[in-house]
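Input (MFS general substrate transporter):
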Amino acid sequence: MFSREWWKRRSLRVRDDKVTKAAELSLRESLLPLCLVTILFFLWGFSYGLLDTLNKHFQETLHITKARSAGLQAAYFGAYPLASLGHAAYILRRFSYRAVFIWGLFLYGLGALLAIPCIKAKSFAGFCVCIFIIGNGLGSLETAANPYITVCGPPKYSEIRINFAQAFNGIGTVVAPVLGSYVFFGFDDNLALQNVQWVYLAIAVFVYILAVVFFLIELPEITDADMQHQAAETHAGDADQPFRKQYRLFHASFSQFCYTGAQIAIAGYFINYVTETRKNTDSALGAQFLAGAQGTFAVGRFAGAAIMHFVRPRKVFLLFLTACIIFVAPTITQRENTGMSMLYVTLFFESICFPTIMALGMRGLGRHTKRGSGFLVAGVFGGAVVPPLMGAVADMHDTAMSMVVPLAFFAVAWTYALAVNFWPWYRDTCDAFTTAEIGVRDREDGVVSKSVVDEEEAVGMEGQTVGEKGL
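Output:
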């Protein structure tokens, strides 16, 4: 059972200069690995939704200010650059996607286990350290899972694929506040903190089981050579340019920083907003309202993915991000159900922005794909910067007035949406992949790519092993 060949197939190291069949996986062939990786999206959606609920919970049980409670977001999202540009990026480029999945799950489980004694000690600083470890784990998972979902399968469906997978992230953000409303609020402080401990113990057990599953399964590995092949097939991008000249990538990363910071800030202070602006709303009810808002977020991702079947993803992105700006602005002055409903609509339109920036930003990177994905994930660091700014404004004025902070960051992120729609240098690269036919039909159809090299002819190619490819 555990033969040498069995262990060899589960090796965590894959040569990046090797072209594999993953460069042209069909829809059918990519289905199983995508389903497995999609589970990870639910995991960090759940963790993120739990964090938003804990933000308000710790304000009450540990008696801390709004600005200080944002330390949770700062620790969580502050870990992302360390992972996406540091240890996870190193493992991804030196080993494989599967190795990063296992590493990320290990760190996630470790942080969850260490959180238990910190909660018992009622140490907010200690819990922030644990959240930092969890953030490193989830940052590692995002460093691998987002690009994997984007590149595993036909390129023309990349935005649809990542938005559909990210919709399960949205489902996780719905489940967490609902759970929080029942196990964190409505109890005395000590019992509520005990409930938090049980939640993190369950998380640790689940993610370690999942890590074993990822070790046992066989995932098709997508190498830099595969992505260079895709870029050449679509005749798009500046893959032959050095990394420092991938200016579209850096613009996308900055947009990701601004957008993600705004999104995290709104969700992090959603409960504060509704309890302050809506009469007869306590924290438990506010958590349920947050779950409803995250539900519209999840619906928005499914809806956005469906719309992208008929409308170019870059156009859908521009429409949705513009709507975020339009609908978050009234929350500054409106109160009661009107203000809350504006946040609901804002979360609906936020839905597709993060994954679509991710997919569009990776267009045409070729051999720089893995390194570039780390920069895009590092943009999540905005979630560590913007919430404390919003918390400071909320402490000085109120939460409604602090909505001016995410509004400003949405406006800056909007520059990338404008560029991919109206600047030919951006637009043409995006469209080249959207119209590509690589991997659209299964190999059983007998249709193969013009670039496919017969495996027998490829044996002599230095440093490459080309597997069977086709559409």
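The chain has one domain: 23-218+240-438.
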